[in-house]
Design goal:
Elements: E1 2-6, H1 10-22, E2 26-30, H2 33-42, E3 47-50, H3 59-68, E4 75-79, H4 84-92, E5 97-100, H5 105-148, E6 152-157, E7 162-165, H6 167-173, H7 187-191, H8 195-204, E8 208-216, E9 222-233, E10 239-248, H9 250-317, H10 326-350, E11 364-368, H11 369-386, E12 390-394, E13 401-405, H12 406-422, E14 429-437, E15 440-447, H13 469-474, H14 481-491, E16 495-501, E17 505-513
Parallel strand pairs: 1-2, 1-3, 3-4, 4-5, 12-14
Antiparallel strand pairs: 6-7, 6-10, 8-9, 9-10, 11-13, 14-15, 15-17, 16-17
Helix pairs in contact: 2-3, 9-10, 11-12, 12-14
Bound molecules: adenosine-5'-diphosphate.
Length: 519
């Protein structure tokens, strides 16, 4: 502790200095008023002992000057002026005590100590005052920070009452009187099923973390919030409440859900495309299989015929040719050549079916269907007669006309009628007729032949399918006839049906639309 002693009487200063130092004070001595004032202004003394009657400037003025400059160092006047007026002046100027010479040194020390301890308390008070001011300032800062935070922040007590909230929360919910609000009765917390989580948080401190909680703000806008809440604990570690934050992540939520929708659409499209591709692949597989079967079948047919021709020729040119019945050999060779020629015809007819090739084109012309049936029956009459088969063309409706491809329709009729002859019994019969029913022409070829077993029905329109391979060969069949019939029918937008009883006969029914769409 340093004490400034301003006293012009040297012997008094020595005496006081000695006594104060004995009490462990440091003492700075000045004999002049102006110098004393200057020192008191510059240095922070713990106490000043001031004479009033000083050279330069008197003690009262020094005291006033110091107090005027807010220097609150305790001042004790030590003076020879003993009047009540002087004492009043001294105290009014800001002095803290007033001693008249001669004085009791003991009393002076007592006063010094008293003033110094008061000063200490005051300093402490000032310090505490500063502290609480600091605290207020930092609270203010915290509030400002929380208020500018871009998220809703609230604190709650153990009962779920909202004890404080930042501006964002107030603006968001427009509930200004948040102190009366309790999260357990708050619609948002109930609707979003958060009550259970917050009760657990307040009970055992389990952090709450939830995405995409939905809320409408006071402007009626849809908002999606990310909620995080942590426990608040007192100095003993006991949970006294919680800090709850809600971050508006509407944009990212909406973006996420948009992305999810896009993703789902994309997946659906990819699935659709994959399905279509798989279907196309299957179709392509089927076509490739058909193609390779077709080539194998054609080459098989040709090889069979060529083997028969080659065999007959070898027999005729060999040493044992004498044994050969050249008439029969020639006959067989001739038959096979006819077969090959017929098959080539059929193949040409079928070439390009299933594609958009030229053979798919229909050359429309007006055709009288009964004329067409008559001419087919006429050209096949010799074959039918050879087998004693009666051909009956029932011509009930004379003028049945159709716009169709004449040569293709001729082929269709020829194939059906020739089959009805080929697969008929000796002395059998066959009927051919056409009729109009509704918007369709119904063409029927019925025979009293060998019939077709149920098990063959699904395949008879396939290329090269023959029920009795050797029998059909003998009769010159290539297995392409019905495939051509079906193709011509479908090319004209029609359909074909078969009914058959094994051993009794077969009926082929071809339905063609009367008014064909001409392309
Ligand atoms: P093919 O040249 O062998 O006659 P098709 O394609 O015309 O070939 O006929 C396929 C098979 O269907 C024939 O081999 C035959 O077994 C059977 N078929 C066709 N038409 C008749 C019919 N009217 N009666 C009995 N079977 C028939």
């Amino acid at each position: 502790m340093i004490i400034l002693l301003v006293e012009d009487e040297i012997s008094i200063t020595q005496l006081i200095k000695k006594g104060l130092e004995a009490e462990s004070f440091s003492v700075d001595v000045v004999h002049d008023g102006k110098e004393g004032l200057a020192k008191a202004e510059v240095n922070r003394y713990d106490l000043i002992i001031l004479d009033i009657m000083l050279p330069g400037i008197d003690g009262i003025e020094i005291c006033k000057a110091l107090r005027g400059k807010k220097i609150e160092t305790p001042i004790i006047f030590l003076t020879a002026r003993s009047s009540f007026e002087d004492r009043k002046l001294g105290m009014a100027a800001g002095g803290n005590d007033y001693f008249v010479k001669p004085f009791s040194f003991f009393e002076l020390i007592k006063s010094i100590k008293n003033l110094l301890s008061k000063k200490l308390v005051q300093n402490q008070n000032n310090y505490t005052g500063d502290l609480s001011e600091n605290k207020n300032q930092s609270n203010e800062l915290c509030k400002r920070i929380l208020d500018t935070a871009p998220m809703s922040i609230i604190t709650i007590d153990k009962q779920g009452n909202i004890t404080s909230a930042n501006k964002y929360y107030e603006n968001f919910s427009k509930i200004r009187d948040y102190h009366s609000d309790n999260i357990f009765t708050n619609k948002f917390f109930i609707r979003e099923d958060l009550v259970k989580d917050y009760k657990k948080l307040l009970a055992d401190g389990t952090t709450v973390q939830r995405e995409n909680c939905y809320e409408k703000n006071y402007q009626g806008e849809d908002k999606y919030l990310k909620i995080v809440a942590v426990p608040l604990k007192d100095e003993n570690g006991q949970i006294e409440g919680a800090l709850s934050m809600a971050l508006d992540n509407t944009e990212s939520s909406l973006l996420k859900s948009k992305l999810q929708t896009l993703n789902r659409d994309l997946e659906a499209k990819v699935d659709q495309r994959t399905f279509k591709l798989n279907e196309l692949n299957k179709e392509l597989d089927k076509v490739l299989k058909l193609q390779s079967t077709f080539i194998a079948d054609v080459s098989h047919e040709l090889r069979t015929s060529l083997t028969i021709i080659q065999g007959n020729l070898e027999l005729m040119s060999s040493d044992v040719s004498a044994l050969a019945d050249s008439k029969e050999n020639y006959g067989q060779i001739f038959n096979e050549i006819k077969r090959i020629a017929a098959m080539l015809d059929d193949l040409i007819s079928l070439a390009g079916t299933g594609s958009a090739a030229a053979s798919q084109k229909i050359n429309y012309e007006r055709i009288n269907i009964n004329h067409l049936i008559s001419s087919a029956c006429k050209s096949l009459k010799i074959v039918a007669d050879a087998k004693h088969i009666a051909i009956d063309h029932k011509n009930s409706q004379n003028n049945i006309e159709i716009m169709a491809d004449k040569s293709k329709l001729e082929k269709l009729l020829f194939n059906l009628i020739s089959n009805a002859i080929k697969y008929n019994k000796k002395n059998g019969w066959l009927n051919v007729w056409a009729e109009i029913i509704g918007q369709e022409i119904i063409l029927k070829v019925e025979d009293s032949g060998i019939g077709i077993g149920k098990e063959h029905m699904p395949f008879i329109f396939d290329r090269f399918y023959r029920i009795d391979k050797s029998g059909s060969r003998k009769s010159g069949g290539s297995g392409l006839g019905l495939a051509i019939v079906k193709w011509v029918t479908e090319l004209h937008g029609g359909s074909i049906d078969v009914q058959s009883v094994v051993g009794q006969g077969t009926l082929f029914v071809v339905k063609l639309p009367l008014y064909l769409k001409q392309s």
